[in-house]
Specification:
The chain contains twelve helices and 15 strands. The chain is an alpha/beta fold.
Amino acid sequence: MKMNNFDFNFYKGKKVLVTGHTGFKGAWLCRLLLGLGAEVTGYALKPPTDPELFGLLDLEKNMHSVIGDIRDLSKLTGVLKEAQPEIVLHLAAQPIVRESYANPVYTYETNVMGTVNILEAVRSAGSAASFLNVTTDKVYKNNEWEWGYRETDELDGYDPYSNSKSCSELVTHSYEKAFLKDAGIAVSTARAGNVIGGGDFAADRIIPDCVRAMASGREIAVRNPHSTRPYQHVLEPLGVYLMIAGVQYQDRSKAGSYNVGPGDEDCITTGELADLFCEAWGGKAAWKNLFQGGPHEANFLKLDCSRIRSTFGWRPHWHVKDAVRYTVQWYQAWLDGENMAEYTDRQIKEYFR
């Protein structure tokens, strides 16, 4: 299958290692890679939520899944030496802003030293030709301005999650210059905006909160309806990650740091996202404003994605209204007891069609 001139059949038979494969994005990514015929190894903690997408997508029997902590350098290095991956996609992280306020040390250990460890393991294993570190749009020093941040803007996230991801970027740049470039390994980082999609069951995220409210017959509580974010369906950045990793595997000059987000028209407030959700869900779905302050989170955040567009010819495929509709349909299918591995495959096919 092709998109934006990249032939995803490139991944057929490729050995790919994914860290964080039991999480929301990681599970979708592994399902996508398996559908492309890749040989997939995953390294992550046990699935972080209950219910958990990793099990719903029936992944364990179709890939080599290793349960381990990204902070354990010795175990991680052993897994890479055994798997001998050609491509490494690093998604393992502590990804929740509010959790980073509650557990800052764990957040830094996971997001900073975890990055050091995977880069060191890649260096030791000697098999990889392409490495991609997935960070976040929150790595930038947020000036609350209305234009999008570019890859050359200052990295200085405010809260421990965002800041640890800024540090993860700097670690990646250092390893690339000091070790990996000379070893012939292409290295990139991808800074993605907020993703939505079926199977996210995390705490403190707007769509899972909406689904939990619907499932229990409650009104949706929105704690910060005025914050503006670039929302996109999870398949948007995953397709870009695979494109970056595949293209730089063949042409190292394409390696670098890339923002991955939707167009300006899909930067909406959390309240507007809740409106779209209620409209797509139907029935008596409704939300209420529960803003009460709380830990600092950026109010306004947009990305300038012109670099990825000019380098790869990439364009977003589903706009935010489509993304919400497909997300709602996934959760409604899950609540109806459908086979979610098969249903997810159908959504993947629909997206790449």
